[in-house]
């Protein structure tokens, strides 16, 4: 298939759906958009690579969806509002014309569904694994973004949903916590937030390091997913280990005042379909550089980054 | 090397250099920037893949530079002003720690040099070839962008610089025509513009199709580079063939009124270092859907897209 044909295919998908802020869309050298005055532009980029982030043979629909969802999870982690996406795809040898089209369609549809329409991209074929890089733009008001670096001693540490075992399927099908993040930031003063991609232990330590504080996670309060329980039977590791270290949960991990946290833990937060998403208080922020995992009996061991490391070979 | 170490390395490069419009830079889930009110945001993404866009064994410095320059060439093609870049790198097996650092440093330095500071990114290692995807953001005033779709019958077709044979080295070392594009758009009313990445023939046909016009290129007026002449000795093809079809010239191809074009052809346009960059009038825009290559004796043959096709296998 010619590159032009594929670009034309994607363009046809978008025909008649141009958002009012989009002045130039797919098919030119770049997309041109109008951003509301006074808003900040939030930008993040993320890749999924065959055999690293998805298995060879994974349906193109799931690959495209994951690539978009993973990137938009970073927009959610800033409590920003999705604006648009661009995607660069390097198709591997295993992708025939039909698979190329299916992947592009999935990118387009996932981006539209998640309120970040695809406005441009680049397609090429290469000798290696299929690689999809999505860059997302979002907007936020001046008070709107929540970074990793604002956690304060005394803060409660909270997480949405349940953790661990995402490799059983959720890592491909999850929905980024975009409305949840906006609702949380709208209801409370969030001090710091991150999405759990590398794993709870690693991502909690990211917040600790960026905020120059320590974190104490209470093992008994960490919400363990059913997937982690099932997976533990195969691995022989405790379900808690999977909740701490598996990663790719794409849940929100955030720090805020204790009273706000208690209120959220009682009420939960509304999800994309209006469903109630649980919020768990799993620990607290402490002064100093040391971070711990605390057992039910109050004993503590140092919290270590057990999650995914992308450059470890 | 740990992912964190590499991110920290890049962050150190940027320390103390935060542009005033950058509110959150490298190290969080996303970068946050302020864009001037009333300006359009221009966004484009582009990948370079080992064994496709650069040979295995190419110095990481050249790979990083090409990835940034190629993407910014698309910002130039819109006559937009570079704002910032983000990069996603999938390091292949051949990249050791030192090569990873060198590539990241090259991305950082090329982006800074080209006035589009690197504000975020993603690093991973994979089983395949090294792939670098750069997304660039630019800004433009409401009247500022130049698309591919505004060419009108009667327009002159112009090109900067000289074409062909970029594979001999220029495809790695070129400087995107950013100041030239801004100067051209400031001096004249440009009707359509594209950067020559796929090849003059293919990219001229892109303008023709998007503008719903035909183009006539005059063979004798196409500026052929010395590289094309040297390369033709090895390939046995005429230098003109290389100028028409090699691609990766990253020169600007644009359409505008004849009087403006003549003035530009006389004066040239100022380059990044104040040097004079030549502008050649190479043809004209005609009504209808047919495009031609015209020989010196006035005979015409259909212009065919002979350039690079990224999805042809």
Instruction: Assign the CATH topology of the largest domain in chain A.
Output: Phosphoribosyl-aminoimidazole Synthetase, Chain A, domain 2
How are helices and strands ordered from N to C of chain A? HEEEHEHEEEHHEHEHHEHEEEEE
CATH class of the largest domain in chain A: Alpha Beta
Q: Extract low-pLDDT stretches of chain A.
A: none
SS summary, helix count of chain A: 9
End-to-end Cα distance of chain A = 35 Å
Domain count of chain A: the total is 2
Proportion of strand residues of chain A: 25-35%
Biggest interface:
A-B, 75 and 75 residues
What level of helicity do the residues of chain A show?
A: 25-40%
Strand order of the largest sheet of chain A: 8-10-7-13-9-14-15
| Estimated structural class of chain A | alpha+beta
**What radius of gyration of chain A results from the CA coordinates?**
20 Å
Number of DSSP-assigned strands of chain A: 15
- Tell me about the largest β-sheet of chain A: 7 strands, mixed
Overall shape of chain A: it is globular
Q: Assign the CATH architecture of the largest domain in chain A.
A: Alpha-Beta Complex
Overall pLDDT of chain A, averaged? 94
CATH superfamily of the largest domain in chain A: PurM-like C-terminal domain
Say what oligomer this is. Answer: homodimer
């Amino acid at each position: 298939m010619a590159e032009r044909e594929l670009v034309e295919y994607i363009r046809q998908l978008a025909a008649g759906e141009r958002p009012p802020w989009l002045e130039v869309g797919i098919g030119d050298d770049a997309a041109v958009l109008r951003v509301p005055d006074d808003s900040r532009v939030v930008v993040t980029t993320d890749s999924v690579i065959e055999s690293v982030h998805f298995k060879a043979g994974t349906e193109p629909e799931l690959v495209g969806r994951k690539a978009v969802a993973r990137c938009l999870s970073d927009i959610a982690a800033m409590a920003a509002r999705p604006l648009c996406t661009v995607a660069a795809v390097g198709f591997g040898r295993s992708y025939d014309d039909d698979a190329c089209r299916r992947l592009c369609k999935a990118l387009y549809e996932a981006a539209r569904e998640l309120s970040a329409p695809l406005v441009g991209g680049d397609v090429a074929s290469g000798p290696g694994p299929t690689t999809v890089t999505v860059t997302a733009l979002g907007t936020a008001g001046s008070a709107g973004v929540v970074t990793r670096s604002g956690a304060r001693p005394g803060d409660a540490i909270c997480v949405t949903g349940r953790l661990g075992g995402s490799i059983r399927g959720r890592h491909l099908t999850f929905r980024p916590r975009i409305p949840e993040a906006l609702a949380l930031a709208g209801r409370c003063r969030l001090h710091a937030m991150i999405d759990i991609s590398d794993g709870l232990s690693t991502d909690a330590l990211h917040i600790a390091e960026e905020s120059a504080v320590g974190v104490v996670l209470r093992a008994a309060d960490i919400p363990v997913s059913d997937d982690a329980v099932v997976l533990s039977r195969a691995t022989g590791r405790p379900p808690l280990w999977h909740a701490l270290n598996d990663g790719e949960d794409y849940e929100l991990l955030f720090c805020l005042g204790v009273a706000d946290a208690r209120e959220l833990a009682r009420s939960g937060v509304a999800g994309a379909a209006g469903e109630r998403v649980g919020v768990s208080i799993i620990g607290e922020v402490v002064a100093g550089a040391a971070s711990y995992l605390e057992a039910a009996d109050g004993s503590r061991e140092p919290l270590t980054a057990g999650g995914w490391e992308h450059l470890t070979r």
